Amino acid sequence: MKIISLILQSTVIVTSLSSLTSAQTMPGEALQLLDGDGDGLVTLEEYSNRMDTLFTGMDTTQNGRLEYSEIDSFVSQDIFDTADTNNNGSLSKGEFDIQVLKDFQGADQNSDGALD
């Protein structure tokens, strides 16, 4: 049951982030899932921590990389290929972390270090 919940949360968050450029238009449920301390703001630390958890849950082969087949139900091939900077067909944790930072910075429209 925990895996199903994680997959559903992953889908909401990743779909929201991959298709939106502003936290102001991000669905409220995605922000709530990311807001670790419940203060209504999502800091980079909270965001990164949640994304780390999602990476682990999405890595169904537990090989430390994300293959496209593990996330193809909610991430387009184009988005995956952009994040796969070494073009080896998988996302390392490092590549994932770089994309997480880019996504956060893109959503933080006023550059205050928080999504609200």
Automatic annotation (TrEMBL):
Protein name per Swiss-Prot or TrEMBL: EF-hand domain-containing protein
Domain EF-hand: start-end pairs: 22-57
Pfam family, one: EF-hand_5
Organism this protein belongs to: Aliisedimentitalea scapharcae
InterPro entries: EF-hand-dom_pair (IPR011992), EF_Hand_1_Ca_BS (IPR018247), EF_hand_dom (IPR002048)
